[in-house]
């Protein structure tokens, strides 16, 4: 009911409504992942449940590009959007990563740990920066990292649980996972190096 009220709120612009829509897709994905009857072969290596989650994830990813485009083109950028949009993306991707871990896919636990650690560190920097009224712009490496993580999740959903045999598709998935982890580390180190002054105490 609260979400419906927010979506109907006249002062909330379209990009923010799309962001809320994306947030609503996250619990739907989580519920689908827990329905055992959907975890049956569907197309190629993908199960019915993973196929549904994949379609929802693609819709969510497209909505992210749409709300960003609309906000920039029509000058509808808001503080709520700056806060909620990246947060929705992170929760969506991390929720799916945890689901993929439970499914025993090609996603290793240490990779998820690195990605989580990076997000916690960057979030900590942003909180300190906000307290000092410092605006930290997103870098190109962070955008590449996000896109690689999106692509990684798509491949892992298609690939499904480890079957014991490794073909070309499995190796492509592993390479993308490694690239996503590398860019996660690189973007995190770059972010810290560029904004290390945020940690200095003011005299």
Q: How does this structure look, described?
A:
This protein is an all-alpha fold. The chain is built from 7 helices and 2 strands; from the N terminus they run H-H-E-E-H-H-H-H-H. The chain has a two-stranded antiparallel ribbon with strand order 1-2. The longest helix is centred in the last third of the chain and has 27 residues.
SSE layout:
Elements: H1 2-8, H2 14-33, E1 41-43, E2 46-47, H3 48-73, H4 79-102, H5 109-131, H6 140-159, H7 168-194
Antiparallel strand pairs: 1-2
Features:
203 residues; mainly alpha; two-stranded antiparallel sheet
Shape call: globular
| Estimated helix fraction | over 70%
Write down the Rg.
18 Å
**What is the H-and-E element order?**
HHEEHHHHH
How many β-strand stretches?
2
Q: What's the N-to-C terminus distance? A: 48 Å
Biggest sheet character: 2 strands, antiparallel
Give me the secondary-structure category: mainly alpha
How large a portion of the residues is in β-strands, by DSSP E? under 5%
Mean pLDDT: 86
Put simply, the count of helices is 7
Uncertain residue segments: none
Strand order of the largest sheet: 1-2
Briefly summarize what is shown:
This protein has 203 residues and is mostly helical. The chain is 72% helix and 2% strand. It contains seven helices and two strands.
């Amino acid at each position: 009911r609260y979400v419906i009220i927010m979506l109907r709120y006249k002062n909330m612009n379209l990009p923010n409504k799309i962001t809320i829509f994306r947030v609503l897709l996250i619990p739907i994905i989580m519920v689908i992942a827990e329905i055992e009857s959907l975890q049956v072969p569907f197309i190629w290596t993908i199960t019915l449940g993973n196929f549904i989650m994949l379609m929802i994830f693609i819709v969510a990813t497209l909505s992210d590009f749409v709300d960003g485009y609309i906000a920039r083109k029509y000058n509808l950028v808001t503080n709520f959007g700056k806060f909620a949009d990246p947060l929705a993306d992170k929760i969506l991707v991390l929720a799916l990563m945890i689901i993929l871990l439970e499914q025993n896919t090609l996603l290793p636990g240490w990779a998820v740990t690195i990605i989580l650690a990076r997000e916690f560190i960057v979030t900590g920097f942003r909180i300190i920066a906000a307290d000092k009224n410092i605006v930290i712009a997103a870098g190109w490496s962070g955008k590449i990292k996000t896109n690689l993580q999106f692509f990684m999740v798509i491949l892992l959903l298609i690939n499904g649980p480890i079957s014991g045999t490794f073909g070309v598709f499995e190796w492509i998935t592993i390479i993308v996972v490694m690239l996503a982890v590398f860019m996660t580390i690189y973007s995190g180190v770059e972010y810290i190096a560029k904004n290390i002054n945020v940690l200095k105490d003011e005299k």
